TrEMBL record:
This is Non-heme iron oxygenase ferredoxin subunit. GO terms for molecular function: 2 iron, 2 sulfur cluster binding; metal ion binding. The keyword Iron applies. InterPro entries: Rieske_2Fe-2S, Rieske_2Fe-2S_sf. The keyword Metal-binding applies. CDD domains: Rieske_RO_ferredoxin. Residues 6-105 form the Rieske domain. Keywords: 2Fe-2S, Iron, Iron-sulfur, Metal-binding. It comes from Luteimonas aestuarii.
Amino acid sequence: MIDTWTYICASAELLPGEMKTAFDEVTGAGIVVFNLDGDLHALEDMCSHEEFELSAGGFDAASGTVECVLHGAKFDVRDGRALCAPAYTPVAKFAVKREGDGVWARDDRD
């Protein structure tokens, strides 16, 4: 497992109902972090249906979902599972933490 954390933003820049993106320079993955009622969740910033950034879509904090603007696939931001067609495969979930005044995420895939 890679033990390199990627800085996403200052904690104050990611308020409930907001999302922020970053690029993991070690693994090359895009990361999108969601603040869902004060809890942070991180996913790979890539729709599992077709290669397109999830962060371009809408984050619905009321339902805890993000929708890909390309074809309307929705994913649960808490665990990355696909909620409707055309996506059937989950999006990779990443570790996320608050440390100091920052938000950090890590791509744990092998």
